[in-house]
From TrEMBL:
Name under which the protein is recorded: Ribosomal RNA-processing protein 42
CDD domains for this protein: RNase_PH_RRP42
PANTHER family per record: EXOSOME COMPLEX COMPONENT RRP42, EXOSOME COMPLEX EXONUCLEASE RIBOSOMAL RNA PROCESSING PROTEIN
Gene Ontology CC, one term: nuclear exosome (RNase complex)
Annotated compartments: Cytoplasm; Nucleus, Nucleolus
Length: 287
């Protein structure tokens, strides 16, 4: 936890009330964002995202698997986040494990929707190769390298960037397998399909401090929050997931206002992230 004096807390809260934060931003401004792609050669796709002093890495590994019996027409995706003990003193021991589990669950909800798959940002049906028999399993791993607040949004941006960097090998299915037989498949080493990220959402967290809420809170600002709502929104402005942190309750009208603000802010963030991903991909191709 960040140890702030009473004077520092008062200074931060007073600034937010006047729409001027300690680093010069307004309440709904993000810190500078940078993206690098293709940083882990062994992965199917990878990316590193820095938002201010928060630094995270995401990687995607695609492996052949078998669909669940309850969802034979869908592939599978799992999300696991690890918080490096060197990123923050509080991450040592149980603190890091608990936060890792909390972030993993939140990202799973934001990207994969409900149990039925409705609202999913990743189209699980696109991962199927032979219905009921063969599918792609995507293993998404995230690592928090350095933490200065707003981890969920940064990890969401890193996962979206890593997925846009992901190539899924082309698969040829041998003709002739029938009944319960497992079909033979030939996985190409040379031909890859670009993973479709058009529906993958970004995450916007609104942190409530005093009577106001801000985006992209720093660690100092998060230490003063009463509650925070994270909303995942896709390119069409649809809500894919919503999670809340903090003990303070929120009036439904406040949550609706937060969703409206998040939709507006998400357009700017999506545009910025798109241009950063495009620039990173171009740099990767040149190198």
């Amino acid at each position: 936890m960040v140890g702030l004096s009473a004077g520092e807390k008062h200074f931060i809260q007073g600034g937010i009330a006047q729409d001027l934060r300690t680093d010069g931003r307004k309440r709904l401004d993000f810190r500078p964002i940078s993206v690098e792609t293709g940083i882990i050669p062994q992965a199917s796709g990878s990316a590193r995202v820095r938002i201010g002093a928060t630094d995270v890495i995401a990687s995607v590994k695609a492996e052949l698997g078998k669909p669940n019996a309850s969802q034979p027409d869908k592939g599978k995706v799992s999300v696991h986040i690890d918080c490096s003990a060197t990123a923050e003193p509080a991450f040592e021991g149980r603190g890091g494990e608990e936060l890792s589990a909390e972030l993993s669950v939140s990202l799973q909800r934001c990207l994969l929707g409900g149990k039925s798959g409705s609202g999913a940002g990743i189209n699980l049906s696109s991962l199927i190769i032979v219905e009921g028999k063969v599918c792609w399993d995507l293993y998404i791993d995230g690592l928090v390298v350095s933490s200065d607040g707003n981890l969920l949004d940064a990890l969401g941006a890193a996962i979206k960037s890593a997925l846009s960097n992901t190539g899924i090998p082309k698969v040829q299915v041998a003709v002739g397998a029938s009944g319960d037989e497992q079909p033979e498949v030939d996985v190409s080493d040379e031909e890859f399909l670009q993973f479709d990220t058009s529906s993958v959402p970004i995450i916007v967290t609104l942190t409530k401090i005093g009577r106001h809420y801000i985006v992209d809170a720093t660690a100092d600002e998060e230490s003063l929050m009463s509650s925070a709502v994270s909303i995942s929104i896709n390119r069409r402005g649809q809500i894919c997931g919503l999670t809340k942190r903090g003990g303070a309750g929120l009036d439904p009208s406040v949550i609706l206002d937060m969703i409206s603000v998040a939709k507006h802010v998400s357009e700017q963030l999506m545009s910025k992230l798109d241009s950063e991903i495009a620039a990173a991909e171009a740099m990767e191709e040149d190198s």
